[in-house]
UniProtKB/TrEMBL annotation:
Residues 1-11 have a biased composition (Pro residues). It comes from Salinomyces thailandicus. The lineage of its organism: Eukaryota, Fungi, Dikarya, Ascomycota, Pezizomycotina. Gene3D superfamilies: Vaccinia Virus protein VP39. Signal peptide: none annotated. This is S-adenosyl-L-methionine-dependent methyltransferase.
């Protein structure tokens, strides 16, 4: 007999709603709100011994719209949970014309839809509910990165590839910022807008297939792709081969299971959730979370990248931090994870570990309870790793 499912607590939403897609209509005026705090880049971590200093002029590094704090990994003081904070939980109740119709025949599974092209390769849903969550997630990234889209020191990019473009929101914003750059966004699902900047196109493509692009890129961007690839080393080799000499690859991802600075995550269903997802993904042959993000540097080095740098950020699991800026990120991330929790678990736990839908439902309820518990001071590490393809030097003779 299954245990009773806990009743979720009603919660408020953080102030400053993110910009969502609006009927596929592109607007260059849509900017997410950002907290105004002092800029601090001091905790960047070099991932390799650097023979040269990277350019840091205002023309080389993507500047935020306004100065903003960065949510880099740090020791955070927890707010006294006895004070009671009602802002817990979620308010989420919520292409190219040459595509074959078969791409739209999505897999239906446990009430959610999944991509049809290369069916089964991507283990998260692709329905409208997930699309809204992905746009919310983009808002959290902008808050986390001080309103930056990337950290690689680009100089007048001419060709950019966005891998796993999802709803296309990052690609649209990048294309808006760099109108002289030809931007290509690829994904397994056709969920992108049709009214986009003239320098942007979307393709249904699989980054695990042979890359057949006409020209190399000078920037390749991949966000939250952990769990998508069977052989990450192959991905980094292909990216290297398809970059111009001097071009940059940037991977923005997540770590899993969660961490905490005081051990309050130990023994929780929240911790077990991350462990089970990693276990299931390994069984399915597509590692996710820290199983792959912890190895990005070594794989990039093996592929030939140089000037590799790592920045590690953090997303609190709810509003437990005392710091107002980190509290806001935690509140938004709580909504993000609660809304995506069922989708994260369904395919992985049923396909990878053989669970029944009813077992998943009960477990999701337990994890949701932990996500609402401000006495659990957990966070997701959010690494950003970027590196450059070296410029080939002509021989002396």
């Amino acid at each position: 007999m299954l245990p009773e499912t806990p009743t979720p607590e009603p919660i408020d939403v953080p102030v400053g709603a993110p910009v969502f897609r609006h009927n596929n209509v592109h607007s260059s005026q849509a900017e997410p709100p950002v907290a105004s705090f002092g800029l601090d880049d001091s905790s960047a971590v070099d991932a390799a011994n650097q023979p040269e200093a990277l350019p840091q002029s205002s023309h080389d590094v993507h500047q935020p719209v306004q100065e903003a704090q960065l949510a880099e990994e740090q020791h955070l003081e927890a707010e006294d949970s006895s004070e009671g904070d009602s802002a817990l939980g979620s308010d989420a109740a919520s292409v190219t014309t040459s595509l074959s119709e078969s791409i739209y025949n999505y897999r239906q599974e446990h009430g959610r839809t999944y991509h049809a092209y290369k069916d089964g390769k991507y283990i998260f849903p692709n329905d409208e509910r997930e699309a809204d969550r992905l746009d919310l997630q983009n808002h959290i990234f902008r808050l986390t990165f001080g309103n930056r889209l990337f950290f690689s020191p680009l100089k007048d990019p001419r060709r950019c590839l966005d891998i796993g473009t999802g709803t296309g929101i990052w690609a649209v914003e990048f294309a808006d910022n760099y109108p002289e750059c030809q931007v290509t966004g690829i994904d397994l699902s056709p969920g992108q807008p049709t009214l986009v900047p003239p320098n942007l196109k979307f393709l249904i493509d699989d980054a695990e297939d042979l890359w057949l692009y006409d020209e190399p890129f000078d920037f390749i961007h991949a966000r939250l792709m952990a769990g998508c690839f069977t052989h990450w080393a192959n991905f980094f080799r292909r990216a290297y081969q398809n970059l111009e000499p001097g071009g940059w690859l940037e991977v923005q991802d997540y770590g899993l299971p969660v961490k905490s600075g005081d051990g309050t995550h130990l023994g929780t269903d929240l911790l077990r959730w991350g462990q089970l997802l990693c276990q299931a993904s390994m069984k399915l042959g597509r590692p996710l979370g820290s199983e792959c993000s912890d190895h990005y540097v070594e794989w990039m080095q093996a592929a030939g990248f140089v000037d590799i740098q790592v920045k590690v950020f953090m997303w609190p699991t709810n509003g437990w931090p005392k710091d107002p800026y980190m509290k806001e990120i935690g509140r938004w991330n709580q909504i993000n994870i609660l809304e995506g929790l069922e989708g994260f678990c369904l395919a992985l736990l049923t396909r990878g570990l053989g669970w029944k839908k009813e077992e998943v439902d009960v477990f999701v309820a337990k994890v949701s309870s932990d996500l609402r518990n401000r006495r659990i001071h957990a966070y997701f590490p959010m690494p950003v790793v970027f590196g450059r393809r070296p410029i080939e030097r002509a021989g002396l003779f």
